[in-house]
Here is the input.
Amino acid sequence: MSRCPACRVDVRGGWTTCPLCRGPIVGEGAPAPAPWPDVPLRFDRRVWLKVVGLVSLVVIAGTLGTVVFIPVPWVRLMVMGLAALWLVALITVRKRRNVAKTIVYLVVAACGLCVYADFMSGWRAWSTTFVIPIICAVSIIALLVAVRIARMRPADYLVYSWLTLLFSVVPALFLAFGWVHHTLPSWISVAMGFLMLVWMQVFHGADIQHEVRKRLHV
Here is the structure.
């Protein structure tokens, strides 16, 4: 069995250098078999990309064909819902390691689809009155849960503060420009964003200020 003199550990398997320090190892005799099994990799990234690309093209073509050739509102909404489901699945898989980006992409995709569906159904402003403020409010709650559960760096608190501010500004703009028929959902979203920002400043204000000073070189 080989041995690493720097780490003072025995090295099993067919290693030519130490797996810890990458230094030379010494020893005589045939190498011992590796202690772990050789598991083949069954995941082929190229095949996965081809399948995802083909399904995405089919979804896009089906959605456009339905919107152009089938003038039935409920059929259009159903097809758009299936397209939104596929889009959510893609975003979740692609950005599964970054909660903040996942939430932002999902919010943008959902709001865009709702505005388009509202426009295709005659623009009754239900998207700006109810759906988008509710989505922003739910996203603020999701950010709060992520902050409470995940172990974050100080830079992450700054990012989440900006996202909370963004989700609060959108309903506030709807109120300012009069794009809503009922103001309660937008006010609830704005109030939740304000409370979230206050909570972030109270419990993580020092980390946020330190990150701001570091980025501004103050």
Observations:
- The mean pLDDT is 78.
